[in-house]
Amino acid sequence: MAGHLPNLTGSFQPNQQFLNTYRIAICVAEWHKEITSSMLDSCKRTLISLGLIESQIEILSVPGSFELPLAAKHMISKGCDGVVCLGAIIKGETNHDMIIATSISNAILDLNIQTQKPIVMGVLTTNTVQQALDRAGGKLGNKGEESAICLLKMLELIRS
After folding, report:
1. Which residues are catalytic?
2. Whole-structure pTM over 0.85, yes or no?
């Protein structure tokens, strides 16, 4: 669940020694753009507020959440140190959402292991649009912010 989790937000300050060496990608789904654009803005703003400069961040838009793993793999192959994948999958009348969510999470897990680079799954999986809005800048925080912090923490873990 998105929100201000104490282990991700608050007093976290990345190691400045490594920060200026990172090249980060944010891959964002265009589907549910009103939700994903809020997460993208928060993710980028968080990375910059923690010390990255705009030229270290590359943004790649893809049609939907299902395309995020391929986009992440592409960005890693272009030399990015880590990737944040942002999307929103909202339950419909069928189990399509579970098929997509499972496929994405498995693919991102595989990419993390294969590439040994952090690829963060900032993909909301909710029952309603309102639940997604609550997690994309609403009353439960912003998954974009959480994903940015998670990526920086994982990059530090790998470098240490």
Report:
1. 96
2. yes
